Amino acid sequence: QVQLVESGGGLVQAGDSLRLSCAASGRTAGRDVMGWFRQAPGKEREFVSAITWSGGNTHYRDSVKGRFTISRDNAKNTMYLQMNSLKHEDTAVYYCAQSLSAVIYTDYARYRYWGRGTQVTVSS
Questions:
Q1: How confident is the model at residue 28 (pLDDT cuts 50, 70, 90)?
Q2: Long-range contacts from 23-31, C-beta under 8 angstroms, 24+ separation
Q3: Lateral strand order in the sheet of 2-7
C-alpha cells in the first residue's frame, strides 16, 4: 500500500504562484509514474501533469504548459507541482496519484493510489 498526502494549496490571486507537494509513504520502492490531476466543481477529474521515476520524462495538459512544472525528489519520496501565472480556471481540488506503470498515461484509471486532494482557489 502507498499513502499519498498533498499540501500547499490555498487561496491566491490571478497571476500568483503556488507550489504543491505530494508526500508518499508505504511501499514506495517501485519506479512508477506519478501524476497530478484536478477536479473543479461540477466537472470531471482531469489530467494535469505526470512524471516518470527518473524525472526524465514529463507530460502536461495543454492549458498548463509553460506555467506549471512537475518534479520529484525520490530520496524524499516527494513530488512537486510548481504553478505559476495562475488563472481563475485553475481553481480545483488537486490530487496526487501514483500509477503501477513506468509509462505516462493521462487516463486517471491507470493510477492506483490517490491522495485526498488539496484545494487551489484562484480569484480573478
A1: low
A2: 23/76, 23/77, 23/78, 24/77, 24/78, 24/79, 24/98, 25/77, 26/1, 26/2, 27/1, 27/2, 28/2, 28/77, 30/100, 31/102
A3: 2-7, 18-26, 78-83, 68-73
Under a CB-based contact definition with an 8 Å cutoff, are residues 95 and 5 in contact?
no
Q: How far apart are CA 57 and CA 67, in angstroms?
A: 17
Residue range 59-88, pLDDT digits in tens? 999 999 999 999 999 999 999 999 999 999
Where do we find the cell 506503470?
101
